[in-house]
Amino acid sequence: MSRLKIFTALIFSLLILKASIVLAAAKEPTIAADSAILIEVSTGRVIYEKNADVERPPASMTKMMTAILGLEYYFPYEEIRVSANAAATVDSDLELQAGDILTADELLRGMMLVSDNGGAVAIAEGISGDVARFADLMNEKAEDIGCKHTHFENPNGLPNNNHYSTARDMAIIATYCMRNTNFRDIVSTQRETIHWTNPSNLTMKVTNSNKLLGQYKGVNGIKTGWTRAAGGCVAVSAKRGEIELIAIIMHSTDVDTRFDDAKKLLDYGFERVTKIHEISKDRIEKKVFVRDGAQATVEVGLQEDLTFPLLDDEDEIKFTVTYDLPKVVSARINTGDVIGQAVLKYDGKVVAKVPMVSRENVMRGWSVGSMLVGWTEPFISVAQDFLLVLLA
Q1: What is the DSSP letter of 292?
Q2: CB hemisphere CA count around 379 (13 angstroms)
Q3: 129-137: long-range contacts (C-beta < 8 A, 24 or more apart)?
Q4: Closest Cα partner for 119 from 137, 135, 104, 141?
């Protein structure tokens, strides 16, 4: 065989090998748990799902909601007194006693790192007076942030037939929580020393139950869970460069396979998500005509950057943006008022939407331009280009 033929065959073999590696990397993982989901954090795009809408006990992943409400309702150094009811809660590794006092920050850290059930009750009672009313608050928050199949009965995830969620809803809750910098700091902590205010000399060294912290590149949270009814559960977040993912595992067979499944999902996600397609909010400016205003137009732009993860088999050129805006709006308009929305499409399919908001105040009043807008409004679609030039 000639050298040219050998070289050609070698190159062809390398190309085949490379293609095989790419195909292998893109192959969906085999997940042992009964429910799972993997999302890209900035947009919530689903990269993988398995029975993601089946209602199941979330176990101690429940404490994500308890923690975020604690952060939203308490000041960090506000003191929380442990009640007899909280101290009597089962599976409480902090060994809280009735009358113990800790700051909100210390108790939240202890609760999240070692998944302390009594600490969750103490936080709930401090905010709402009792567990039942706190559960109502949890359910209101879950609904507000977009959960569709979640109902909480307690702040810690101990078994209750009416306490359930789904992998998709848990991902929604995890995403909401990770937007809070204090929450991020707590759940990314591998080891901590918890200090009591009373008894003043009491401390306890604790280790985060999330075994992937420090073991998997980029992991920065979030929460484990286990009961006999729920099986193994875990919410794991990881960030590498601009790409951040959240994996939710529910009803795994044991406490270890949940971490194996989470690693498989994260591996798959970091292989598939190649970059974040982003349009800066500062790049897009549109004008909308104003009736009965002190000026004839209002400048509108994106409320936030328009982003979407690009997967390994997708082409950036297939992204398009359209703008759903009214032709005319009425004064008065305040800066930040939602006027319409920008719609990001991939290959013609809607993949993300971002509100478009006013970038200025427009007082109600009279102007020549606004008068012209009023006169031409019945045929504004035809006259808009002429009017924009005239009013420039």
Answers
A1: S
A2: 3
A3: 131/155, 134/69, 137/69
A4: 104
Q: How far is the C-alpha of 146 from the C-alpha of 161, rounded, in Å?
A: 22
Give the alpha-carbon dihedral of 41, 66, 35, 234, to 10 degrees: 80
Q: In 3-state terms, what secondary structure has residue 295?
A: coil
Tokens of 368: 């020549």
pLDDT of 386: 64
CB 251 within 8 A of CB 170: no
Element (H, E) at 133: helix 131-144
Under-70 pLDDT residues of the chain:
1-26, 380-392
179 cis-preceded (ω within 30 degrees of 0): no
Per residue in 168-227, pLDDT tens? 999 999 999 999 999 999 999 999 999 999 999 999 999 999 999 999 999 999 999 999
**CA-to-CA distance for 325 and 341, rounded, in angstroms?**
7
178: three-class secondary structure by DSSP: helix
Q: What pTM did the predictor assign?
A: 0.82
Q: Which residues of the chain form beta strands (DSSP E)?
A: 35-40, 46-50, 79-81, 101-103, 191-195, 203-207, 219-227, 231-240, 243-252, 273-279, 285-291, 297-302, 306-311, 319-324, 328-330, 338-346, 349-358
Rounded to whole angstroms, the Cα distance separating 63 from 187 reads 11
